Amino acid sequence: MDFTPTVIDNYVESNRDEAIACLVEAVQIPSVTGDELAFSKVLKRRMEENGLTVETDAEVEGRPNLLADWQGTRPGKRFVFNGHMDVFPPDTVDPGPFGPWAGTISDGWLFGRGAADMKSGDCAALMAVAFLRRMGFDPKGSVLLSYMVDEENGGTHGVQYLLKKNKLQGDFGICMDCSAGKLLVTHGGGIRASCTYTSEPRHSSIRYPGKNALRKAAVAINELYKIDDRLGTVYPENFDQPCMSINLLHAGTAANVHPAQATFTIDRRLVPGEDRYAALKEITDTLDRLKEDDAEFDYQFEISSMSPYLDIPEDDPFIQLLQKSYEQIMGKPVEIFRRAGGSDASFIRESTGMPIPNFGVAEDRGEGGSGRPDERVNVQGYLDFIKVYMMAVVNALS
């Protein structure tokens, strides 16, 4: 069989009900970060139903990463599809038009938490491999389907864990994370950390001698925001500005007791060209200066994630192959773009050297995009990206 764009298009359209059912089921299974097990079972079952042997590898019990290798009969290169199974928690104020786990299709859009980020990408890659296998395509080399836990928390128990075990090696690949149907070759990195201050608990009817934990945290947060003020004067070419924010603060146990502990999180976003270790030092230097000025400001600091930025040259041969594959299916050029938000692809790129851009159909940050109450994906766009992924595998491994 010739695996032409027309043949691929016809096959996917003839099997569109199966492909849509796969995505509906996926969105209907809650998989908030830390609770990915149920969704992993759905992906594992569907891969096994399509003849793939699935390896599970979990650093944390109940949070399995999934790996399924499709080996061709001829030696060759390895194509890696990489996706994550975890999603943001539902919005506690706005459940969205149909509820977070609806999987409802309305006016050509499929709604629900994870529809954009990134279950549409997960299912598109799975169906692309399943359809090519059924059509009799014999890859010259192999295709790896990999699905990770913990991406939204920085990938410690997912991508970083598997890279340490050399289980994501390949020659090129696609991270199916949402990129609004565009080909993302560059994205930012980041540092996520927590800082904790402690003090003796006392009844609040008595004036606190010195500074309680929350007051120390407040002073530190104000000092740290001076870093963000500085970053606000940086204007990278063709990229979002670097930034830093404090997005979580936990302190105290009762309204009439001085808090004995205060913990806040730091989210520092990096742009290409920034050194993440220098950025980390700027943060800890700020905290250390407070401690040097006042011994009360002793603190505990924990890094949960330090992700590199992704930067793939536009003239990389694999990027050009993806551009060709998209145009063969869609009949128009694909837009190249860059953004601040990160993905597991940056860890894979740094560790293996392979080109692995973000390439997914769903909106990444606008209306209906990642983490929004109205999160959704266009159904026809999802089907078209199955075709694009199929074409890319055919072009890379024929």
UniProtKB/TrEMBL annotation:
Residues 186-293 form the Peptidase M20 dimerisation domain. Its cofactor is Zn(2+). Keywords: Zinc. The keyword Zinc applies. It comes from the Bacteria. The keyword Zinc applies. Pfam families: M20_dimer, Peptidase_M20. PANTHER family: ACETYLORNITHINE DEACETYLASE, PEPTIDASE M20 DIMERISATION DOMAIN-CONTAINING PROTEIN. This is M20/M25/M40 family metallo-hydrolase. It comes from Dysosmobacter acutus.
